[in-house]
Amino acid sequence: MAVSAAHASHVPTVQFDAALIRKLSQQGPRYTSYPTADRFTDQFGVGDYLQAVNSVRAMGARNPLSLYIHIPFCDKLCYYCACNKIITKNRSKAETYLTYLKREIEMQGKLFAEMNQVEQLHFGGGTPTYLNDAQMADLLAHLRKWFRFATDDAGEYSIEIDPRTVSPERVHTLRAQGFNRISFGVQDFDPDVQKAVNRIQPEEQTLGVMQAARDAGFRSISIDLIYGLPKQNLITMGQTLNKVVAANPDRISIYNYAHMPALFKSQRRIAEEDLPSGETKLDMLSLCIKRLTDAGYVYIGMDHFAKPDDDLAIAQRQGRLHRNFQGYSTHAEAEMVSCGVSAISAVGSSYSQNEKTLEAYYESIEQGELPIARGIKLSVDDLLRRIIIQMLMCNFELSIKSLEMAYPITFAHYFATELEKLRALEQDGLLKIDSEWLTVTPKGRLLIRNICMVFDRYLNSPREAKLERLKYSKTI
Ligand code: SF4
């Protein structure tokens, strides 16, 4: 898809407009996939997945592979957590899990044999470093047995780290084991905030392992923060941001804490009176954007910031940024094969999700079957809307002409209803529409989900009750 000359030559900017956010912020999906995972059905099964793999093979399997490995275990519960995780100190559970995970990797490896190499590997969780050194080495050797990997300088091999679980020595070992990108869960440096969310993580510990990651030669170091946590205020946020900027990571993600205790049981342990008000949250977001852009970080989109010379920022300038279940990525057009409980794959024109409980996951593998529980086969309309949402999320613009060349549609006719809704957002100043481009304004970038939601056919179908949106977090 085309990128406008203006886009190619300028670093995207972002403009914070509190009144506009107040007016338009609503509940909506984060679009790590389209259709979103809540549209997957159990009508989709292993047979459909195998068909998707076969079509990829039949088309010449040109795309590289991206592997995701899910390790669901954590030592301790963080109260804000909305991930699919299992809290246990019983390490033998990880041993059992690894046995099954390796069998699933072997099944997937056989399916993709002779196809393209792996250019991306991501370990997520839970806590991937719940595994010890020997278990990690064994798992990586198993992955290398069943998949062909690009060399260290060509591939992106990343792991999410809970700094409480690793020593500086362990970080060096992870680099030697083949990881070249690392992201650290920090959330907030303030001790009172840490206490309120049950995640005590001394600053020296976090900074120590970050330094070790630099010394070990990791190519990209990333920090995850959250705003909207209990006991946070503008002062604590300012102090945390100062420390983050001083720590000098290549990428920073700042997530909005969505307090949804009805959906996530662990969040019921958070005292509601400790939560910052909506207004304070907006001020904190404004502060984050100001501090980080003043410090030279580029706003990539959807909570992500990166240094201008980081691969993500470069890929965005060149119009080849991509978005998947792990957020933004520089490797577009990869077949994403995910292994582990609840993991989601994106192969060909399909999404598929593994069983969500360990019991069901183990049982399928025991029967020699891939543990796929649900998914969706994308229609041509889904594919078209997916590319539009992808373009808007990653590049903040859409070339109507390129889309019309790639798909047999006339944009103004096919999306007549959507254009009407977009005109209202144009009046609000979120985007500009002409016959060739949809261009998101700097003010519209923070509300990009609102613009994407216009193209979400499922969300806009008559069946979709307004109440159903309550399962999503707020767009800001
Ligand atoms: S936030 Fe991370 S470490 Fe904490 S419980 Fe959730 S998955 Fe585990």
TrEMBL record:
SMART domains: Elp3. The keyword Metal-binding applies. Monomer. Pfam families: HemN_C (PF06969), Radical_SAM (PF04055). Its cofactor is [4Fe-4S] cluster. Keywords: 4Fe-4S, Cytoplasm, Iron, Iron-sulfur, Metal-binding, Oxidoreductase, Porphyrin biosynthesis, S-adenosyl-L-methionine. GO terms for cellular component: cytoplasm. Transmembrane segments: none annotated. Belongs to the anaerobic coproporphyrinogen-III oxidase family. S-adenosyl-L-methionine 2 binds at Y80, C81, A82, G126, T127, Q187, R199, D224, A258. This is Coproporphyrinogen-III oxidase. S-adenosyl-L-methionine 1 binds at Y68, G125, E160, I344.
